[in-house]
Amino acid sequence: MTAPLKLLLDYDEAARALSLSRAALRDLVYKGRGPAVTRIGRRTFFSVKDLEAFVERHREAAVPLSQPEPLPAKRGRGRPSIAQKTAHDRSFQTGLSD
Asked: In CATH, what is the architecture of 8-57?
């Protein structure tokens, strides 16, 4: 015997279906960023179709792996050493002569 088809889920069932805590789902609904709700009297329910639409809105395409961008050189603290200053001056002078 099969279980009856459920059209509407309460907070606990919807949170379990979305792998969220009940509090997280309530917070999303309160802030207007959660799935659409159906109110019957004072009770709040979630349609299975609305939960599926919510998941689709948050689906992201897989990003192919690429070479990570090199991190910019860290800026040293304090005054540059004489060697750093000389290297900077040389690179600046060679850049102007091109």
From this structure: Orthogonal Bundle (1.10)
Distance CA 14, CA 8 (A): 9
Which residue reads 């897989």 in tokens?
Answer: 62
pTM above 0.70, yes or no: no
Report the chain's C-alpha Rg in angstroms: 28
**Would you mind telling me the total number of residues written for the chain in this entry?**
98
Tell me which residue of 7, 20, 10 sits closest to 48, measured CA to CA: 7
Q: How far is CA 46 from CA 33, 65, 83, 90, in A?
A: 14, 37, 67, 67
> For position 98, what pLDDT does the model report?
45
Residue 43, beta-bridge partner list: 40
